[in-house]
Write a structure and sequence with these properties.
The chain is α+β, with helices and mostly antiparallel strands and about 80 residues long. It has one domain: SH3 type barrels. A 5-stranded antiparallel beta sheet has the order 3-2-1-4-5, with helices on one face. The mean pLDDT is about 95.
Length: about 80
């Protein structure tokens, strides 16, 4: 099973971005999305360090709500 994490772009430097999710920041490669127009404050799905899809802020929030619910159910 693969898990993509929604993250918000905080800064962009070429094909690299600094992204944040729930207070955690990571360096993310934008290489796989080089044909897409990405800007600061956009939301992307990140998988193994690569942004793989642009999503809306609402979709990102929905995903995090679901993740929080799953974690709350874990013993």
């Amino acid at each position: 099973m693969c898990l993509g994490i929604p993250m918000q772009i905080k800064s962009i430097d070429g094909f690299n971005a600094r992204c944040e999710a729930k207070g955690v920041e990571r360096d993310v490669s934008l290489f796989m999305m080089q044909d897409d127009e990405l800007k600061i404050d956009d939301y992307v799905v990140v998988h193994v360090g690569y942004a793989i899809q642009k999503i809306s802020q609402q979709d990102a929030q929905t995903a995090w709500q679901l993740y929080d619910e799953m974690l709350a159910e874990t013993p």
